[in-house]
Amino acid sequence: MASIVSVSNLSKTYASGFEALKGVNLDIEEGEILALLGPNGAGKTTLISIICGIVNPSGGKVTVDGHDVVHDFRETRAMIGLVPQELTTDAFETVWNTVSFSRGLHGRKPDPAHIEKVLKDLSLWNKKDNMLRELSGGMKRRVLIAKALSHEPRILFLDEPTAGVDVSLRKSMWEVVERLRASGVTIILTTHYIEEAEEIADRIAVINGGEILLVEEKDALMTKLGRKQLRVDLAQPLERIPDSLSSYNLTLEDNGQSLIYDYDTSAERTGITALLATLAETGIRLRDLSTQQSSLEDIFVEIVEAGR
Q1: Assigned architecture for domain 3-223
Q2: Which burial class, exposed, middle or buried, applies to 308 when counting CB atoms under 10 A from its CB (0-12, 13-18, 19+)?
Q3: 3-state secondary structure of 164
Q4: Angle 180-79-186 (CA atoms, 0-180°, nearest 5)?
């Protein structure tokens, strides 16, 4: 798949001396959903701001569909929609005027039908004549998304789009995102709700300390770095793990009432059959068995901690 955004050796050092980005390289494929994950201060917002032409880089280059974001600002910005973290809106303007004005700012001719569709998709149609100061925080965030979609961008950046939004509104937003992806829009998402990234992203990029630690297909990442655990609930608690089980990767939990066995799902043999046989030979009786797959959040934490 062709790259629509290409980031090459990108760096950014602020006047204070803080180095926000350190030689970042990243290619974003057309039509994909890329989840950009990282802790606070990792460089996510700086990277997005440079791609969107809001912040100038200290070094390196960014192109959008072959256009340089610094030298061809108008061309690249017209292709991009941005939903920022901050709720920056004109409190005394109506929803309709705010979204319509944003379309004009990007050089697009008026299109009331498109604005109506965007507002309806985001459940804002019945609020179109309300001033923004009359809206809840969740409604205001949806207005930011409507503004970002007003000029029909090919690339959409969502920087913590569901912060402060209730569960039902979050679900409707992701339905809109899926429809946009189906129409060919490229979407770059940052979120603290990592389970959302796990559900909708095609690829995962992890950034920390201004450096990209990993870029991977989500499914491949989950297979390669994910772990499975077998939980063995015991009929009688153990004080310690018997020597006969020392060759297995076991931990004792719940005051000795459960054994936890980590195993590799991609390995030819998991060792579960041998473990259960050894437990039986040792005379340890079981009460229950269950398995648990590591989540994207577990993998993310491990990657960030390993990169420190």
Answers
A1: 3-Layer(aba) Sandwich (3.40)
A2: exposed
A3: coil
A4: 35
Could you give the CA distance from residue 42 to residue 145 in angstroms, rounded to a whole number? 24
How is domain 227-294 classified at the CATH fold level? Alpha-Beta Plaits (3.30.70)
Q: Which helix (H) or strand (E) holds 73?
A: helix 73-78
Contacts of 104 (CB under 8 A, 6+ apart): 110
**CA separation (Å) from 122 to 55, 112, 145, 208?**
29, 15, 8, 32
pTM, full prediction: 0.75
Q: Where are the domains of the chain?
A: 3-223, 227-294
Asked if residues 89 and 140 have their Cβ atoms less than 8 Å apart, the reply is: yes
Residue corresponding to tokens 């030298």: 71
Residue 111's Cβ-count burial label (10 Å; 0-12, 13-18, 19+) is: middle
pLDDT category, 271, cuts 50, 70, 90? confident
How many Cβ atoms sit within 10 Å of the Cβ of residue 5? 23
Inter-residue contact 259 to 241 (CB < 8 Å): yes
